[in-house]
Structure formats: C-alpha cells, structure tokens
Amino acid sequence: MSTTNSGAPLLTGEMDGLTYGIFFSGCDARGENCEDMRLVSYWDEYPVQALNTWNRTKYVGRAYLDDDGTTLDLWVNLLGA
Asked: Taking Cα atoms as reference points, which of 1, 72, 8, 77 lies closest to residue 40?
C-alpha cells in the first residue's frame, strides 16, 4: 500500500503474473472516506479486435491499449448513490 501524489490510497500487486492497481479518489485530507475507486489490471498486448469486442459486449469496465500493453479498468462508486 502506498499513496498517489495527491495523498490518496493506492494498492498495487501481482497475482499469477498479472499486475494490478486499486486507485482511490475523492478522499478526505487523511486519505479516508473516498468517493470512488478504480480497479486496473495490466495484461500482455491483446489484438485490438478483442478489445473492441470486450468494450462492445460488456456492461462495465473498459479495455484499451497503451504504452504498457493492454489495460482493463473499472470505476466503482463508494458512496452508494
């Protein structure tokens, strides 16, 4: 566990070779009571067509290519509203 430049909590790890991060935002000055979090996993590069199919057929989450390969992310509202 660490923090972002803004002081928000940041959890990172690796499981079975898959790197992931949990980024929190909208937190108070103590890094608590956060409004939302973003779940992110980083994969080897997948074909663009597979990512387009994911984005077209899945209700939540998005997949895209960036400089590090394929990223899959999902925003979660922690306020319950």
From this structure: 72
Token code pair at residue 35? 């409004």
Beta pairing, strands 36-43 & 9-15: unpaired
What's the whole-model pTM score? 0.79
Q: Which of 33, 34, 13, 31 is nearest to 22 (CA)?
A: 13
| Structure tokens belonging to residue 73 | 């992310």
Q: Are 71 and 40 in contact (CB under 8 A)?
A: yes
Q: What is the pLDDT of residues 38-76, one digit of tens each?
A: 999 998 888 999 999 999 999 889 999 988 789 999 999
Q: Strand locations in the chain, DSSP E?
A: 2-3, 9-15, 18-25, 36-43, 62-66, 69-77
Bridge partner residues of 18 (DSSP): 15
Phi, psi (5° rounding) for residue 42?
A: -115, 125
